[in-house]
Amino acid sequence: MMKAIVTVKFDMQPDRDKEGRIHKVSGVCPLSLELHKSIYCNDVYDKHHSYIEEGKDIKEIKQKAEEMFGHVTRIEVISDE
Fold it and tell me: How far apart are CA 41 and CA 76, in angstroms?
């Protein structure tokens, strides 16, 4: 079984101050809804979020991620047992 860090992209609008600067907002991660887990992150409005996925190979991992989130930005294999 292979494990990988999968980075997915959400269509988020960052939180901006009066001058238009983006600032980070901590809270419940957008991944929480699809993964049915309470995940906390330090930048909830960021477009890219990562999680760990398992599968028999990288193709299966990518397919799972695409089915849940759509756009997959990156997959980094961390274990291949």
Answer: 20
Residue whose token pair is 């995940």: 39
Q: Do the bridges between strand 48-55 and strand 2-9 make them parallel or antiparallel, or are there none, so unpaired?
A: antiparallel
Q: Closest Cα to residue 46, out of 75, 72, 17, 8? A: 8
pLDDT in tens, 8-58: 998 877 667 778 777 788 999 988 888 888 889 888 888 899 999 999 999
**Three-class secondary structure of residue 17 per DSSP:** coil
Calculate the CA 53 to chain-centre distance. Answer: 10
Q: Is 49 exposed, middle or buried (0-12, 13-18, 19+ CB in 10 A)?
A: buried
